[in-house]
Amino acid sequence: MARITVTVNGADHTDEVEPRLLLAHYLRDKLRLTGTHIGCDTTNCGACTVLCDGLPVKSCTMFAVQADGREIITVEGLATGGQLQPIQQGFKEEHGLQCGFCTPGMMVAATALLERNPDPSEEEIRWALSGNVCRCTGYVNIVKAVRWAAQAMQEQAAPEEPATRQPATEQAATR
Amino acid sequence: MRDVGYLRVGDTAEALTAAARPGARLIAGGTELVNLLKERIEQPDLLVDISRLPLTDITVGPDGLHLGALARMSDVAAHPEVRSGYPAIAQALELSASPQLRNMATMGGNLMQRTRCPYFRADHDLPCNKRRPGSGCSAIDGDHRAAAIFGASESCVATHPSDLAVALVALDAQVRTTARTLPARDLHRLPGDQPHRDTVLDHGEMILGIDVPVSPPSAYLKVRERGSYEFALVSVAVAAETSGGVIRTARAALGGVAPKPWPLDVDLAGVPLRRDELRAAIAPAFAAARPLPGSEFKIELAQRAVVRALTKPIGLMGET
User: Does A40 touch chain B (CB under 8 A)?
Assistant: First the structure.
């Protein structure tokens, strides 16, 4: 057994774990954070994507011991104070899910993209999500959902002047 | 997955001592090793975690590029001076795996990854000399679309999957280990009758870094069955100086065609950058090709890829 301390969604957890325990199983079985899905268990599908020190990684392809001292964000860590994050709102508004199984991984991977690139093109979104598989093949609406979130975040970041607010496209042109 | 011990080491000396134990296996990003353990392809007794060692440097200087063994794929691919001075390396990395894996996987681990031959990876007991020495090769009479056309043996026709390794060979890089420095082109070995050994490294030997000399303009072209997150059917890395539409110097290496990155050993100096002349100049290198019926298409595909890599500028993702 190995002792690990991992920060998950802002809270520190110290546990004795078997070295062969996958991070995905640690999150789901030990911490009961079952939002992180295990789709393929073969590193292909991306349903298990979490952020490790801010970067998307596949938690089924990482031992919990490797996360010792790291900061993990799971899909449960996206919303704050009961408020949906723009990416979550975007998936809702644009119907970015059908069966919903891939959705946690998609939203986590998209969160990292928007952190790095607040105004991604469709191509950049598709590239950033290329490690996430949607078996319903709902990619068109997933891309729209990420675009929706990007736009909402830019509007949030813009100065609050509702009376004179410009459409997002004009904001982009004058930036 | 079988139970396994775990030791995180704090320095290289400690790593060497631990890695020398029988049954020990180094782990860095783990993106390959975790799967090898899950699939019971490898069953080490001890994982020696080297991921916290200070070997993550990415340094560009007048003598070239230096990459620590633990530099992450995503960090190297995004490095501005790697992208401008060594684009074949940035492209090879960016076209590898998926974003999640590139955020974990390291330079050393990428070179040490194992073949994607479906029989090596199969979750049931099929003959595979690389996985179970002496059991035979299922690919020769089976599914061998992805098989090698160069350097294979009667024991094994598997190809090496690393994109990075192909770029390093074209750029004449050196690999530094705890025991020696060797050219990147000599790191991987041909299967012969010992296909279970992928590289020339000894048990417990650890890659410390990669040194790449200052490079002429370079590019990496990967041909695969979908646009992202797939291994190469064939790939080519080129590093070439040209003037007035004529090659002055060029070095090229192929991926997806051999058990190791396959240097294209033809002299291209003086060859005009035109399809017909290039095809004629590289043809001798393909005389040694020994495909299986299902992999014969790679001979034509690889030659077209070389021509395209030399004649068409290849953009980095997001900069095309």
Answer: no
